[in-house]
């Protein structure tokens, strides 16, 4: 079994949900050499998230941003505002969606469904570049 671990930065994204599947694949050429295995992605941040969802219609991403903002918005009772009013809401959103994904690899490709893509949820107004640790395991 091969185990490969790489760390890489995503480009800067504005607040919202962004399809990053191709960016991830382009950073991980090693996937092409795995016949059967898994890719684990771990986002090293507490104010952004990773999730899998619809990869075709961009309105899904804007609908997700609108919905999560209805559930978690800036509240006057938040005490953790050291980095701005969007700080605590970003932490809560990150906890709701999570910071890691595990995706099967089959015949050198991510084995995602036809309409599935990897999303970065950027929950800060000015989050900056985000760092991912990718662990590839397989044969």
Briefly, what is this?
The chain has 139 residues and is α+β, with helices and mostly antiparallel strands. The protein has helices spanning 21-27, 59-71, 87-97; strands spanning 2-9, 16-19, 36-43, 48-54, 100-106, 109-110, 116-122, 131-138.
Structural notes for this entry:
The chain is α+β, with helices and mostly antiparallel strands. The protein contains three helices and eight strands. A five-stranded antiparallel beta sheet has the order 1-8-3-5-6, with no helix packed on it. It has a three-stranded antiparallel beta sheet with strand order 2-7-4, with helices on both faces. The longest helix has 13 residues. The model has no long low-confidence stretch (mean pLDDT 96).
